[in-house]
């Protein structure tokens, strides 16, 4: 199977049929496309004033404050970033932004014309690889579709196994009936009933266990959602470890650690919430962040 076609766009196309013409220029097969945006469409920045956190968390923070770093205004802006290779003690991010309206138009045109855009990336530079301008909603939609396809495959496999097991069971049952057709064996009937009861008991136990696990997961998800909603917008969590009893540990960065502690005391389900030591002030990019850690333990 051939790989995707790389379609390079050096400048912003005019709205309407110009985008359709660009996609149709790649040909009819394969219909998978990787769009490469030229430097005229991409803004790049080296950011050093972001808190030290995971890439996904930092990307959402940069996207939220995109107007602070980039000059793109019309149609919104899509931001992605990668960590810069270590150079000294300062941690920096290599961030790039592209016009959101252009990317949305490309995705809409591809859907209309029967093409599939695998990714939207900037021109490659040393140290800037790994960037993607696919919107978070599109990435989430593709992830859900992948899960759905995986579930369909798993269900198909389970059905095939069940059919094979049923066919094997029916075949063995017929053989037994043919061999013992002249003998009315009470023992065989008792054994079949016992086997069915045992299978029913195992199925009932498995169903009960699955329902309990689903209930526990829903409770834990509700507790974590309440914690996230209670936190101020400026808080960046790096660790959140909780169990159903409400005990666990939270850690991250905030402008004011005591405000985080006060907000989390309003969350039902968190018990005996206490700060671990004294919050540490961490200056990054000219801003002060308080590194905090909270532990919830049984009294």
Walkthrough of the structure:
The protein is of the alpha+beta class and 299 residues long. Helices cover 44% and strands 23% of the residues. The strands form three sheets. Strands 7, 8, 9, 10 and 11 form a five-stranded antiparallel β-sheet that branches. The protein has a three-stranded parallel β-sheet with strand order 1-2-6, covered by helices on one side. A three-stranded antiparallel β-sheet has the order 3-5-4. A hairpin with a 5-residue loop joins strand 7 and strand 8. Helix 1 crosses helix 4. The chain is flat and about 90 Å long. The termini are far apart. The model has no long low-confidence stretch (mean pLDDT 79).
In short:
With 299 residues, this protein is α+β, with helices and mostly antiparallel strands. It has helices at residues 17-24, 55-64, 66-69, 100-113, 136-179, 186-230, 257-264; strands at residues 5-9, 32-37, 43-47, 77-83, 93-99, 116-122, 236-242, 248-254, 273-275, 280-284, 287-296.
Secondary structure class reads alpha+beta
Radius of gyration: 29 Å
Q: How many helices?
A: 7
Would you tell me the overall average pLDDT? 79
Q: Tell me, what's the shape?
A: flat
* Helix content, binned percent: 40-55%
Write the element-wise H/E pattern from the N-terminal end onward.
Answer: EHEEHHEEHEHHEEHEEE
**β-strand number:** 11
Q: What composes the largest sheet? A: 5 strands, antiparallel
The residue ranges in which pLDDT falls below 50 over 5 or more consecutive positions are none
What percent strand?
A: 15-25%
- How far apart are the termini? 61 Å
């Amino acid at each position: 199977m051939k790989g995707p076609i790389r379609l390079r766009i050096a400048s912003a196309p005019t709205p309407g049929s110009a985008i359709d013409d660009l996609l149709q220029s790649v040909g009819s097969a394969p219909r998978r496309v990787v769009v490469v945006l030229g430097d005229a469409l991409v803004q790049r920045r080296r950011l050093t004033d972001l808190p030290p956190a995971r890439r996904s968390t930092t990307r959402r923070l940069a996207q939220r404050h995109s107007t602070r770093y980039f000059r793109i205004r019309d149609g919104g802006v899509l931001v992605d970033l990668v960590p810069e290779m270590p150079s000294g003690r300062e941690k920096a991010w290599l961030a790039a932004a592209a016009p959101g309206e252009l990317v949305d138009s490309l995705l809409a045109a591809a859907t209309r014309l029967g093409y599939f855009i695998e990714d939207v990336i900037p021109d490659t530079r040393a140290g800037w690889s790994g960037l993607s301008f696919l919107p978070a909603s599109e990435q989430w939609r593709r992830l859900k579709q992948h899960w759905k396809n995986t579930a369909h495959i798993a269900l198909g496999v389970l059905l095939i196994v069940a059919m094979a097991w049923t066919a094997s069971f029916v075949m063995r049952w017929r053989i037994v009936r043919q061999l013992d057709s002249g003998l009315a064996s009470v023992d065989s009937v008792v054994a079949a009933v016992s086997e069915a009861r045992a299978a029913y008991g195992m199925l009932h136990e498995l169903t009960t266990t699955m329902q309990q696990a689903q209930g526990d997961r829903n409770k834990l998800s509700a507790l974590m959602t309440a914690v996230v909603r209670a936190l101020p917008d400026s808080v960046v969590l790096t660790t959140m470890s909780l169990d159903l009893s409400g005990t666990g540990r939270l850690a991250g960065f905030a402008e004011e650690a005591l405000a985080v502690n006060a907000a989390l005391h309003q969350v039902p389900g968190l018990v005996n919430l206490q700060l671990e030591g004294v919050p540490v002030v961490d200056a990054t990019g000219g801003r002060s962040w308080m590194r905090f850690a909270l532990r919830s333990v049984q009294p």
